[in-house]
């Protein structure tokens, strides 16, 4: 009956779990029940999270959210404006992403989250494995390059066995259409239109990241409450091109879910590459 969508990679998997509140970054909750995408109700359904991107629950008040004092008093917060970088001999992370990943697509009231069904997607940093827990996006970008935002930024959230986080940021810019993102965004759109949770099957995640990327590396934080620090950031220098209609799908769902730039303080940003 859905033949007219012509998207065989997408299958509806769930209509349940309406009441769950998933936290984008809390690794321990990664298997928590998630809710289908219901755009009109998404912020309301998530109101016990107690924060948003504007008004009296906006970023300047996040430090008042229970357990989120780091948002206010933290000294190594993210995102930052990346303007000065230091060359480094450190190794860049190596990507080991699947060519056939199955991804659950959900909406947590703050962004759209893509969660792999398996733990086999990972990056390696200094011989240590960090598994891909989920990825999601912000429009416009959260980090800036030389004071400039990009139309969007994808965050690939990884954790090692001790629960330490390493997040890869990938800027999106307007250009040619991207086939992998087409599968993901078509699934996102169908989820939203039909108000059900979808799984995008056999997505070639390895094609989303450059083969030999250069990264801007620094120590920062989660960009949403609780703004926990000790997050290793690796922002990819080379943006990924996306067609304007693809970016429009993202901004139709979320526009302005970017935390303002935070002080860099005494931190340095290192440029690392293979
Ligand atoms: Zn993010």
Note down, in words, how this protein is organized.
The chain has 274 residues and is mainly beta. The protein has one domain: Roll (Carbonic Anhydrase II), CATH 3.10.200. Helices cover 12% and strands 34% of the residues. The protein is built from four helices and 15 strands. The strands form two sheets. Strands 1, 3, 4, 5, 6, 7, 8, 10, 11, 12, 13, 14 and 15 form a 13-stranded mixed sheet that branches. A hairpin with a 7-residue loop joins strand 13 (214-221) and strand 14. The longest helix is centred in the C-terminal third of the chain and has 16 residues, at 179-194. The termini are far apart. Residues 1-48 have low confidence and may be disordered.
Q: How many domains, in number, for the residues?
A: 1
State the end-to-end distance.
48 Å
In this structure, how is the largest beta sheet organized? 13 strands, mixed
Q: The CATH topology, please?
A: Carbonic Anhydrase II
Question: Percent helix among the residues?
Answer: 10-25%
CATH architecture level-2 label: Roll
Number of helices: 4
Overall morphology: globular
Number of strand elements: 15
Bound molecules: zinc ion
Overall structural class, as computed from helix and strand content, comes to mainly beta
Mean pLDDT: 84
Order of helices and strands: EHHEEEEEEEEEEHEEEHE
């Amino acid at each position: 009956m859905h033949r007219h969508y012509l998207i065989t990679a997408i299958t509806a998997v769930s209509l349940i779990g309406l009441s769950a509140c998933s936290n984008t970054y809390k690794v321990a909750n990664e298997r928590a029940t998630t809710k289908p995408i219901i755009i009109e109700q998404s912020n309301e359904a998530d109101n016990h999270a107690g924060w948003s991107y504007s008004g009296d629950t906006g970023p300047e008040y996040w430090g008042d959210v229970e357990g989120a004092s780091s948002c206010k008093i933290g000294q190594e917060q993210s995102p930052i404006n990346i303007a000065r970088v230091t060359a480094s001999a450190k190794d860049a992370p190596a990507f080991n992403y699947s060519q056939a990943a199955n991804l659950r697509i959900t909406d947590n009231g703050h962004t759209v989250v893509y969660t792999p069904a398996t733990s086999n997607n990972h990056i390696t940093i200094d011989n240590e494995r960090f598994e891909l827990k989920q990825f999601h996006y912000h429009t416009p970008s959260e980090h800036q390059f030389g004071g400039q935002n990009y139309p969007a930024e994808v965050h690939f959230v990884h954790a090692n066995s001790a629960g330490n986080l390493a997040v890869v940021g990938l800027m999106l810019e307007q250009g040619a259409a991207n086939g992998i993102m087409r599968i993901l965004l078509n699934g996102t759109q169908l989820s939203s239109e039909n108000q059900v949770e979808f799984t995008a099957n056999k997505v070639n995640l390895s094609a989303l990241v450059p083969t030999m990327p250069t990264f801007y590396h620094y120590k920062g934080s989660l960009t949403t409450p609780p703004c926990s620090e000790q997050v290793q950031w690796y922002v990819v220098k080379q943006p990924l091109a996306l067609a304007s209609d693809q970016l429009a799908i993202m901004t139709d769902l979320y526009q302005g879910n970017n935390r303002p730039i935070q002080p860099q303080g005494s931190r340095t940003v290192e440029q690392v590459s293979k």
